[in-house]
Amino acid sequence: MAQFDNKVAIVTGAGGGIGQAYAEALAGQGAAVVIADINEEAAEKVAGKIGADGGKALAVRVDVSDPASAASMAERAVAEYDGVDFLINNAAIFGGMKLDQLLTVDWDYYKKFMSVNLDGALVCTRAVYKSMQSRGGGAIINQSSTAAWMYANFYGLAKAGVNSLTQQLSRELGWMNIRVNAIAPGPIDTEANRSVVPESMQGELVKTIPLSRMGTTDDLLGMCLFLLSEEARWITGQVFNVDGGQIIRS
C-alpha cells in the first residue's frame, strides 16, 4: 500500500508550478486529490494527467478569497471522495504580480492581493476543518516563503502573515487532531518565478544561496509528504524552510 491510500487531499493553486508538483506527488502516494485552481482549464489538465498515470483526481474551480467558492470546493470533495484529510494552501497571486511598495501600491490591488495570499489560507481552512474533524483529524500545509524574513513589500507581508496564521490555527485545531504547518521555499525555478525575477537577476540571487542553485519543485516534495505523514504526527505550528540555506533563523 502507498502511504496515503484512502486519504483525500485538496491542493489549491494546483493548476501548475509547485501546486501541481504537490498534487502529483500525493496522487503517486495513493491519495485522491482535488486539483483546486481559479484556472479551471489548467486544473482539468493536471487532473487528466494524474488520471492517465493511474491516480485519482478531481478538478474544481475555486477562488480562495471567496468563502462561498471555498465551501463549494469542500462540498465537491466530500461528495466525490467522502471527506477531506489534507489541505495544502498553495494558491497565491505571484506570477505576473505587480511590483510596488507598501506606501504606493494601488489600494484595491493590495486588498485583493492580501485576500488571496493571506486570507485565502484561512478561508479554505474554515471550509474543510469540520470534514477533517469528522474523519478523526488531518493535516494542513500553508505555503509560506523566505520572503517572510526579508524586504519583499506586500508579498513578504502576506507570507509573514501566513506564518503567524499557521501558529494561530495550530492552537485552534490541535484538539481536533488537525496539525497545521508551513513550508517556506526559497527561490524555485518555475514559470511564475521567472515572470517576477528577470533572468538577469537570477545569477545574483543564486549567489545568496549557500547551495548555489535555484530550487526545483521536486526539492519541496519530501518536506510536503513528510508533514502530511504519520511520521510528523507530533509536529504542528511550525514553519520549515526549504531554501538551500538562503535564510538563517535562530
Summarize the topology.
Elements: E1 8-12, H1 17-28, E2 32-37, H2 40-52, E3 56-61, H3 67-81, E4 86-89, H4 107-117, H5 119-134, E5 138-143, H6 153-173, E6 178-185, H7 191-196, H8 199-206, H9 218-228, E7 239-242
Parallel strand pairs: 1-2, 1-4, 2-3, 4-5, 5-6, 6-7
Helix pairs in contact: 1-9, 3-5, 4-6
Keywords: Oxidoreductase
Organism: Mycolicibacillus trivialis
Family: Belongs to the short-chain dehydrogenases/reductases (SDR) family.
Low-confidence runs of at least 5 consecutive residues: none
Main-sheet strand order equals 3-2-1-4-5-6-7
Structural class: alpha/beta
Order of helices and strands: EHEHEHEHHEHEHHHE
- Please describe the biggest sheet, giving its number of strands, its sense, and whether it closes into a barrel: 7 strands, parallel
Provide the β-strand percentage band.
15-25%
Number of helices: 9
Using the 3D structure, state the CATH architecture.
3-Layer(aba) Sandwich
> In one word, what is the shape?
globular
Provide the CATH topology: Rossmann fold
Rg over alpha carbons? 17 Å
Mean pLDDT: 96
CATH fourth-tier homologous superfamily: NAD(P)-binding Rossmann-like Domain
Q: How many E strands?
A: 7
Describe the structure.
Belongs to the short-chain dehydrogenases/reductases (SDR) family. One of its GO terms (molecular function) is oxidoreductase activity, acting on the CH-OH group of donors, NAD or NADP as acceptor. Keywords: Oxidoreductase. InterPro entries: NAD(P)-bd_dom_sf (IPR036291), SDR_fam (IPR002347). This protein has 250 residues and is α/β, with parallel strands linked by helices. It has a single domain (8-241), classed as Rossmann fold, CATH 3.40.50. The chain is built from nine helices and seven strands, in the order βαβαβαβααβαβαααβ. It has helices spanning 17-28, 40-52, 67-81, 107-117, 119-134, 153-173, 191-196, 199-206, 218-228, and strands at residues 8-12, 32-37, 56-61, 86-89, 138-143, 178-185, 239-242. It has a seven-stranded parallel beta sheet, sandwiched between helices. Strand 2 (32-37), helix 2 (40-52) and strand 3 (56-61) form a beta-alpha-beta unit. Helix 1 (17-28) crosses helix 9 and helix 4 packs parallel to helix 6. The chain is globular. The model has no long low-confidence stretch (mean pLDDT 96).
